Each structure stands twice: as C-alpha cells, then as structure tokens.
C-alpha cells in the first residue's frame, strides 16, 4: 500500500512539472510570435530628439504603454502567427448594444450628443456584421422628438438644430433604413434651414449664428446629397443673389481650398491649424462635388497633403495622430486613415488618364508644376494601423469596446471610428466609373468598387464590413436613401 500522504504530494509534483512545461511552451510560443512581428513595431524609434519636454515625455509614456501590447506580451490577448490578437467581436457588439440602452447618470453631459450615440453605435454594429433593423422604431421615435419645425435636428427634444446632430440623425435613419425612417425627415424645412446657414464665401455655419467651418461644409454636402435636396437657395439665405447665380454648393470647393495650410494638411477654417478630422471633411466634401481624380487636383496640393497625412502615422505605435506633434489616437484611424481610399481613387484615376488633364499637374493654383508619381499600391502602412487597432485599441476586459489608446476607457465614438479605420485598412477601394456629373444631385451615382486587401496579416474571420468612403455607412444604405428621395417629385 502506498502512503496515502504521498499520493497528493506526488500529484502536486507532477502538476508543478506540467505547469513548468506549459510555461516553457508559452515562452517559446511568445518568442516565435515575436519573430513574426517586424522590428519597427517592437523597438523604439532609431532617431530621437534629445530635447526633453512635456510633449516628448507624453510621447515616451504612450510608446511605453503600446510596446508590450505590440510585442505580443498582453496576457489577456490570444495572438495569431503574425503576433496580432483576434478582433473581439462578441464583446464589442455587447458593449455597443449597451451604449444604445439607458446610460448611467454621468452621461448627462453627453445629452446633446444623443444623435451621435445613435450613429456611432449603429454604424459600428453594422461594420461588425450585426443587423440593426430592430432599432428602426426606436430611432424613428427619437429622431421625431429631435426635429425642429424650422428644419434640422437638435441634440434632443427642444434643442437648437445643429449641423453635426442633423448629420448624425440622417445617417442613423439611413442605417436602420426603410420608407418610414426616411419619411421622418421634413426635407422642405431642411432645405430652408440649410439655405439659412449657407454663407456668401461658400462655407456653412454649423448652427444659426454659430461658427462657420469645414465640418459645416462636409455635413451639409452629405445631407444635401443623401436627401437629394434641390440646390437653389431659399430667399432668406445670406448667400442668396437676385440673379440666382449662387446655390447651396457654390463656392464650397473654393472654401475647402482656403483651408489647406502651409503644412499641407487641412484646417477647420482658413488660416488655422491642420487637423486630421478636417482633412477627411475636406476630401469628403470635394468627392461629393465631382470625381476625386478631377476635383482634388483642381483645389488641393495633393503631394503636400499626402506628405502631411503620411506623417501622421507613427512607429512603433502604427496608429495615426490628428495633428503635428500630438499622440496617436484610435479615432484618427478613420479621420486620417479614411482619407487614403479617396486619395487612392484620385491617383488611380490620374494614372489611368481618365482625369482629362495632362500629366503635368498644377499644384492647386500655386503656379508650380510637377508630375504626380504613379499611385503606389498603398500610401500608408496598413499593417501598422491594423497592429495599433487590434493590439492597442481593444479593451480586453469583460467590458469590450474600442478606445483612443492603452490606458483610456473604450467609448462609442472611438469604437465607431476605430472600426471604420480598420475597414479602410482591410479593403481596397476604387471608383468604378468616373462620373461626368457636375452636381451631387446627378441622376446616377458613381459606384465604388471594394475588395478585401490581398496581403493580410489578420484572420479572415476578423474582416469587418466595408463602409462608403464618404458617407461612412455601407454603400447599399447610402444608395437606398438616395434612390428613395431621387424618385420623389419635389418635396
Ligand atoms: Zn480620439
């Protein structure tokens, strides 16, 4: 008979041995994983400025938080052979549904952003492959309560109409879809309200008496386009002219041109600082006015813009910053990353000779001529962006959701725009047929062709759904609402 006391002790020795073997295996596995990660994402940048400032300290802190996650050392994550964690779809879906339900008291400060929560969560769920039609009734009722008789939507019942909240409501209605949702919108009042915001210099105020900036121009262009509004101005518009020579889109492209800064990026208003989100607004605006292959080079200095956009991507982090000398932030995966499909469409069109111009390119009215190089396969490191998103932007706790950077809480805003950036990085976009349309209310839309990008380092099951490069909702949702209103006679 064996000593009963020995049984447990020998079992425990065996289990120690087992766990040591397992630990060793994990270490070997982790080392192998490291081999699959390019050095640029696991090491400090080779060139460093020796001047220490508050900004350089913040940058070092951020790199310090990102490096272990990028190097395959996150205990909570399960890495693939390229050292990338899986997209935690189920947890993110749960997080987004929770953000569409009743929110805790601390969210009271975000009350006027309720339309944004609708758009962010519905768009993010859609990108994750979820069917959001079950929210149709709730979105319709909420949108009705936010619409003003004077046109547009406020952030809540009785709140002033604002361009940003109106944009968000229109996109949310397009996402849930259907005639009942589209019919919520009072298009005649919307047309009058947008006319009253249109300024003689081509731009739009964001609300009556409010600031005029490029967000206003982008949101207005999207709303006019999706709702197929007539372009003539209501007589109460500050931009109205007796001879009828001015309409809702007159001078928009010139306004955008005035927002390109000395750095090459785009600012919110003329003579301000270049910012990633405004770059997306600028390109989105122009892409609605004409094919990017024609209009971008007419109004922007593209080489300088591309240089500025590319400089927003950092190593080792792989993500984008929004401004010069700022930190990486997940939301710029869309605001900056989302510029590249539009630029790519522009360069592809020029390379194929469809733009109708000579090879010589006049740098946006500067008088300086140069020749645009052929479009490279990709204008930014897709791998870097995917690594930042999947390694650093996923909240690996039970809570789920996506975030700005390690150490920050996940939220609906970042979940939406991080996923939109992932979608841009995972797909190749091109405008299938250049349109000769001069106005955004042309009878036929150009069709964006989209395919998953071939060289992928992530698992196929982690592919997210593509979204329209300008409207930031799926292409079929944009088409459905446009077709519906295009078929209507008048308002
Ligand atoms: Zn952000």
From TrEMBL:
Residues 87-473 form the Prenyltransferase alpha-alpha toroid domain. GO terms for cellular component: protein farnesyltransferase complex. Keywords: Metal-binding, Prenyltransferase, Repeat, Transferase, Zinc. Heterodimer of an alpha and a beta subunit. Belongs to the protein prenyltransferase subunit beta family. The keyword RNA-binding does not apply. This is Protein farnesyltransferase subunit beta. One of its GO terms (molecular function) is protein farnesyltransferase activity. PANTHER family: GERANYLGERANYL TRANSFERASE TYPE BETA SUBUNIT (PTHR11774), PROTEIN FARNESYLTRANSFERASE SUBUNIT BETA (PTHR11774:SF6). Its EC number is 2.5.1.58. One of its GO terms (biological process) is prenylation. Catalyzes the transfer of a farnesyl moiety from farnesyl diphosphate to a cysteine at the fourth position from the C-terminus of several proteins. The beta subunit is responsible for peptide-binding. Gene3D superfamilies: 1.50.10.20. Its cofactor is Zn(2+). The keyword Plastid does not apply. Binds 1 zinc ion per subunit. It catalyses: L-cysteinyl-[protein] + (2E,6E)-farnesyl diphosphate = S-(2E,6E)-farnesyl-L-cysteinyl-[protein] + diphosphate.
């Amino acid at each position: 008979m064996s000593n009963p006391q020995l049984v447990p002790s020998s079992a425990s020795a065996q289990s120690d041995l087992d766990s040591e073997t397992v630990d060793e295996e994990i270490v070997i596995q982790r080392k192998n994983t490291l081999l699959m990660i390019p050095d640029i994402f696991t090491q400090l940048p080779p060139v460093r400025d020796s001047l220490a400032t508050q900004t350089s300290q913040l940058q070092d802190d951020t790199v310090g938080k990102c490096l272990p996650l990028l190097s395959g050392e996150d205990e909570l994550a399960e890495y693939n052979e390229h050292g990338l964690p899986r997209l935690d779809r189920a947890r993110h879906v749960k997080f987004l549904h929770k953000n569409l339900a009743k929110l805790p008291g601390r969210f009271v400060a975000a009350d006027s952003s309720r339309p944004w929560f609708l758009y962010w969560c519905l768009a993010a769920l859609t990108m994750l492959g979820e069917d959001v039609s079950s929210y149709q009734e709730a979105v319709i009722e909420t949108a009705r309560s936010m619409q003003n008789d004077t046109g547009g939507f406020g952030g809540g019942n009785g709140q002033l109409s604002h361009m940003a909240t109106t944009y968000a409501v229109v996109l949310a209605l397009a996402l849930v879809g259907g005639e009942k949702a589209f019919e919520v919108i009072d298009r005649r009042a919307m047309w009058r309200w947008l006319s009253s915001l249109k300024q003689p210099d081509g731009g739009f105020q964001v609300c009556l008496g409010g600031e005029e900036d490029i967000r206003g121009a982008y949101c207005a262009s999207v709303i006019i386009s999706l709702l197929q509004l007539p372009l003539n101005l209501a007589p109460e518009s500050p931009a109205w002219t007796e001879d009828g020579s001015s309409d809702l889109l007159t001078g928009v492209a010139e306004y955008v041109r005035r927002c390109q800064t000395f750095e090459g990026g785009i600012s919110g208003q003329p003579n301000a600082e270049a910012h990633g989100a405004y770059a997306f607004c600028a390109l989105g605006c122009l892409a609605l006015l004409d094919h990017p292959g024609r209009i971008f080079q007419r109004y922007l200095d593209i080489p300088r813009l591309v240089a500025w956009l590319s400089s927003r991507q950092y190593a080792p982090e792989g993500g984008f910053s929004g401004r010069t000398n700022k930190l990486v932030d997940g939301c710029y995966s869309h605001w900056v990353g989302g510029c590249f499909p539009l630029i790519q469409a522009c360069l592809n069109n020029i390379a194929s000779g469809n733009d109708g111009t000579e090879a010589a390119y006049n740098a946006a009215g500067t008088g300086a001529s140069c020749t645009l190089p052929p479009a490279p396969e990709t204008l930014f490191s897709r791998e870097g962006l995917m690594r930042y998103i999947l390694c650093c932007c996923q909240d690996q706790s039970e809570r789920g959701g996506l975030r700005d950077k390690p150490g920050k809480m996940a939220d609906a805003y970042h979940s939406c725009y991080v996923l939109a950036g992932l979608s841009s990085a995972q797909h190749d976009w091109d405008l299938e047929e250049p349109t000769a349309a001069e106005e955004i209310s042309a009878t036929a839309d150009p069709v964006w062709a989209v395919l998953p990008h071939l060289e992928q380092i992530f698992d196929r099951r982690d592919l997210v759904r593509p979204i329209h490069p300008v409207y930031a909702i799926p292409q079929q949702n944009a088409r459905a609402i446009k077709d519906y209103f295009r078929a209507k006679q008048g308002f």
